[in-house]
Amino acid sequence: MRLLILAAAATVLLLLQGSAARPDGLNIWEPIKNLNDPYVREIAEFAVKQHNEAVKTKLVLSKVVKGETVNFLGTSYKLVVEVKDGAGLKSYEAVVWTWKIIKILLWFIGVEGNA
């Protein structure tokens, strides 16, 4: 089952990379209007937690700076988050794919400077 979920996530990731430029206007990343929405915060917390577990860090979510979403084989969230790393603040871009109760962190990469 886990392999099936990972395969689905990989497929979604490949499809998402081409979805922003579709000429028919379908599957375009749309801005998230309310970055303070509790579900958006939940997705951001999930991304930080998964990253922390994967690379053994202790980042703490400060806020969601920017967000976009696309609906395609579930819903994907592309968020720029500001996190506390000790005394400093850093920015990361996280992409989380969701479908029903499943959430998978597709990537979590540093953003130059603070967003």
Describe the protein's architecture and organization:
With 115 residues, the chain is of the alpha+beta class. It has a single domain, classed as Roll (Nuclear Transport Factor 2, Chain: A), CATH 3.10.450. Helix content is 31%, strand content 41%. The chain contains 2 helices and 5 strands, in the order αβαββββ. Strands 1-2-3-4-5 form a 5-stranded antiparallel sheet. A hairpin with a 2-residue loop joins strand 4 and strand 5. The longest helix is centred in the N-terminal third of the chain and has 18 residues. The protein is globular and about 40 Å long. It starts with a helix and ends with a strand. The N terminus is likely disordered.
Kindly report the average pLDDT value: 84
Indicate the CATH topology. Answer: Nuclear Transport Factor 2, Chain: A
Question: CATH first level: which class?
Answer: Alpha Beta
Roughly how many Å apart are the termini?
A: 37 Å
Derived structural class: alpha+beta
- Gross morphology is globular
Strand content: 35-45%
Number of domains: 1
**How helix-rich are the residues, as a percent range?**
25-40%
> What is the C-alpha radius of gyration, as a whole number of Å?
14 Å
CATH architecture: Roll
Largest sheet: 5 strands, antiparallel
N-to-C order of helices and strands: HEHEEEE
Strand order of the largest sheet: 1-2-3-4-5
Q: Count of DSSP E strands?
A: 5
Low-confidence stretches are: 3-7, 12-23
